[in-house]
Amino acid sequence: MKAKKRFKGLPKIVTLAPVSIWLLLLIAIPLIYILVISFLGRNSNGSIRYSFALENYQKLINAQYLKIYAQSLLIAFFTTIISILLSYPFAYHMAGGSKTKKVIMMLLVIVPFWTNSLIRLYGWKTILGSEGILNGLLMKTHLIQQPLQLLFTMPAVILGMVYTLIPFMILPLYASVEKLDHSLLEAASDLGAKRYHAFLQITLPLTLPGIFAGSIMVFIPALGYFFVSDLLGGGNNMLIGNLIKNQFNISQNWPLGAALSIVLIAVTILLVKLYTKVGGNIDDLGVA
Amino acid sequence: MKPMVEIKNVNKKYGENHVVKDMNFTIYDGEFLTMLGPSGCGKTTTLRMIAGFEEPTGGSILVEGESIEEKEPYDRNVNTVFQSYALFPHKTIYDNIAFGLKMKKVKKPEIKERVTEMLSMVQLEGFEKRMPSQLSGGQKQRVAIARALINRPKVLLLDEPLGALDLKLRKQMQIELKRLQKKLGITFVYVTHDQEEALTMSDRIAIMNGGVLEQLGTPDDIYEHPKSKFVADFIGESNVLEAIVASIEDEKLILNTETGKVIGKNADFQKDEVVCISVRPEKIRFSETEVKGFSLAGVVKEHIYVGSFVKSIVVLPNGHEIKINRLAGDSLPPVASVTHLYWDINQITVMHSKEHQNYMLIQNIDLGGYQ
């Protein structure tokens, strides 16, 4: 590829300075601060005690917290699986569609983003609540006698997660299906493969990187999107994200919250490492 | 000869775009047939219709006398070598070649035996465990051929298979492909835009232009007797002159060109008909004096020595340049001198002027120099 003619206007230091300062002030320094306070203690009045301590990390391992981790992982896991199952056919059709179809489908994915996700989740509340639209409809058609407990359940949280996070699955999947060389499918068909064989033998393996990328983009936020479980899960479905939020908010235990955050970051890094190890391209994640 | 593929009145339209127009020809068993033409001439589309990737808008295609329209590509007894090879990037060379047999549920020991046989045929023994990305272009090409041939197709379709290779490798692969085709006796249908490749490899060449079959014949036939101006221009070098039939004497055509009288061989031409004369550069001869029947003269512009022969350019009074190739050592008229040109009437081609050459008629009448 021919390299673009280098833009010779401003020196590097000027062009890179704003973004560097931005990253330093808003990402690097806060992260270092979190890392540091995760190793500090807490005074009884809630203020931070400036002496080295490992107590925060020790506190992370207790039965109640382990239950929350397990629950959180379970929700993230189901969110990811359901997202894959819903997104794959969508992305597949989008990649194979005409230009207009692509634009329309892309808009369907993106337009909901123009509304704040909290507002959209409140929408689900009115649908799922015991006095909500869905229960009302089922009652009216006499399919049920009593309103079902839909809201404040784990499925409701998973539903909200899938609803919020599905674009992050669709987009990388779409990119990987789109990239697939159509002549490979023709070759498979030419060599005697029926449609589903061609799919299993060629399409699926070659779009695995997209599935991995999407899974990471969905799984990780699903561990932390506390507002989804706040709104749709009530107090019953705590996530790691809720736990962290509570430490900073209600319990005023910043060091413990910091330690939890560090663990979550470590898990994230581990997953991304795993992803690149199985052959994924880090650029496909849209994060670096 | 047994017909293997019959293309009958095949048409292909993409909306308003008519890519293949009333295509009609037969490919015989064991033949190496090349579809040759510039890009957009419909050659690849025709090939893809035989393979089953495209459906004809009209007409039918028969393989071994059987219509194949209803058959999906995976049901057809033809295999394709793709332009970009289309090797499965996530499968080893072994699995790539074995793919067709696996789809047909052939037993494992037999698959192994046949893959090994194929690998040795394309001289890639020991490459079983490699991935396609670890191979060079030429090696990928061989794998693509082996992957198609392992299914023992009746017809092998090749879509510009050597296009991505460098010149030296391409020449080598041309010879190998031809050798392979002779050895296996499989019908090859080959698509290329490279006339030299077509001339070297094919038993017969189908020349296409704008979705129309211009001429179908042996390389020799097409080179020596082009049926249209397009073919004469497209295959090899040629001088094309427009002329009007002045008179017909037995088998001789007396022709008036814009700059002089020449003669050609008659074949159902009529007096006053506008024709095209195609003369290969090596068929034109120099003379110091006028040769009987010819009054075509020009000024020698230059001689270019290219090893075994000399390329000369003679400029006619109307500015038209005539290319002439003579063997090195032939006596040549000096540069800037006036020379007379002539030829053996059996070595040139006179063609009916087709509709796309009609503009010449108007031009010629305007000149009014033919009576």
What does this protein structure show overall?
The complex is a heterodimer of chains A (288) and B (371). Chain A has 288 residues and is mainly alpha-helical. Chain A has one domain: Orthogonal Bundle (MetI-like fold). Chain A is 70% helix and 3% strand. Chain A has helices at residues 12-37, 55-59, 63-96, 99-110, 117-128, 133-140, 154-179, 182-190, 195-224, 226-232, 240-248, 254-277; strands at residues 40-42, 48-52. In chain A, strands 1-2 form a two-stranded antiparallel ribbon. The longest helix of chain A has 34 residues, at 63-96. Chain B is an alpha+beta fold. Helix content of chain B is 25%, strand content 35%. Chain B has helices spanning 43-51, 93-103, 108-121, 137-149, 167-184, 195-201, 219-224, 229-234, 359-367; strands at residues 3-14, 17-28, 32-36, 58-63, 66-67, 78-81, 155-159, 187-192, 204-209, 212-217, 239-249, 252-257, 260-265, 274-279, 285-287, 296-306, 309-315, 321-327, 338-342, 349-352. In chain B, the strands form four sheets. Chain B has a six-stranded mixed sheet with strand order 6-7-8-3-9-10, with helices on both faces. A five-stranded antiparallel sheet of chain B has the order 13-12-11-14-20. In chain B, helix 2 crosses helix 3 (108-121), helix 2 (93-103) runs parallel beside helix 4 (137-149) and helix 3 crosses helix 4. The radius of gyration of chain B is 25 Å and the shape is elongated. Classes of the chains: A mainly alpha (288), B alpha+beta (371). Chains A and B meet through helix 8 and helix 9 of A and helix 2 of B.
